[in-house]
Write the structure tokens for this entry.
Amino acid sequence: MKIVVLSRNPNLYSTRRLVEAGHQRGHAVHVLDHLKCYVAIEQGNPTIHYEGEAITDVDGIIPRIGASVTFYGSAIVRQFEMMHVFSANESQAIARSRDKLRSMQIMAREGIGMPITGFARSARDIDDLVRMVGGVPVVIKLLEGTQGVGVVLAETKKAAQSVLEAFYGLKTNILIQEFIRESNGTDVRAFVVNGKVVGAMQRKGAEGDFRSNLHRGGTASVVKLSPKERSTALKAARALGLNIAGVDMVRSKRGPLVLEVNSSPGLEGIEKATGVDIAGSIIDFVVQNGGHRKKQKDKVGV
């Protein structure tokens, strides 16, 4: 089977592991930089070109689309879908998961637990926003932030007002969110592949940092999920239409609360923490579904 990994950097751990796992199973795996792909939009004849040649005979793709290039990357994935090439995550699901507000609205509709979250455009509403999410301290997030960048903990009302006014002054969209004190700077990532949790880790933030992202100096260790955490992770991935997802949750007094669902979750931290061949699980999923040339249909509808 011919599988394409859409990744801007073939040397990244996640990309290398997917290629390695594919080769171990006897498949041809190629890495293409999605920003170097370009498309021809023609009636009845969608094509993708790369370095001067048309891409043909692809059985399945694994998108590894960075947040900063979601629009273009999703367009390339969509073009493969137009060619009836199976995608591990559909273009619509990728775009949906990258819009934090949209994804949270969908998960709330599906009854998935989340920290109370507010969204507004006017600085005049700050007092009510803070009250709405339970008062200070509050977490303030840029909608476009990733890997813990653009996330601020405001511990007093005055600090919250200052941060919010600064962000509003920049004309940027933000979320204000309930701070889950009992999480103690830790969260849990459940890695979902094809409707199953194939691995889970607990991440703890660096000393003095409430953010638990590994890119911010956090540490990871294997963790056993409760039945409720497992079902919440699966429900969140399904709600957003993702076959492959990293579901980030915090443990709270009222059960697991979803912080974010990542459509291109990294493999390094969780494979090293758990010892599980997650790259192999992804390849197996693509092999099971690739090559059928059937049209994928998004079922979420939002």
Observations:
- The domain at 2-96 is CATH 3.40.50.20 (Rossmann fold).
- The two ends are 33 Å apart (CA to CA).
- The chain has three domains: 2-96, 117-179, 183-276.
- The CA atoms of residues 4 and 61 lie 5 Å apart.
